[in-house]
Amino acid sequence: DFLFFWGAVFLVTTTLVALLKKENKELTPTKEETKGITDTYKLLFSIIKMPAVLTFCLLILTAKIGFSAADAVTGLKLVEEGVPKEHLALLAVPMVPLQIILPLIISKYTAGPQPLNTFYKAMPFRLLLGLQFAFLVWWTPKVKHEGGFPVYYYAVVLLSYALHQVTLYSMYVAIMAFNAKVSDPLIGGTYMTLLNTVSNLGGNWPSTVALWLVDPLTVKECAGAQEQTCGTAVAAEV
Asked: How confident is the model at residue 62 (pLDDT cuts 50, 70, 90)?
């Protein structure tokens, strides 16, 4: 129902914009950055060939490997240990005001000549929070009882997620500020799109690999079948 409602709102509003918004024809059109798709890709290729850009792309493609398991797997492991999915979803609600306020606060520190300093300073704290998330997964089955989980457990999870959001947004806003600062104004849109795409890819591929590695790296034991191993999916099913 939630998705249906907002899907309908999205369709109605975008349709109204398409029908009712009129272009101002009196303004002279600005010069296009590129003339077509082929020119755009040629331009992107010429940008990415620059040594500084190539080095930067390699850095942001690998910078988030250390956080991938904590970011992608923690929530799934908490659910596996018995934390109700709806309770974890509810914890996202108090995060919304924090997610709105954080970029406003962090942008003050990334507006200077070296926005990546904030990125560097946040990285060790985010790595430490990965260890804290691992402890949280280990601790979860120990506090579970018949009635579910105590209130203090959810308070610890909420605090952990809040601290994680601080480090996450510090790195995110810093990298965006840096991309905006180094992009050539003449081809700003194309330049920023390239850097932001590589930055997003640098966050997504390690998470995908981390999720793929969960099964091979998880130790399983068979309850009630001492001679049966559970090392593979087929053996676990048997």
From this structure: very high
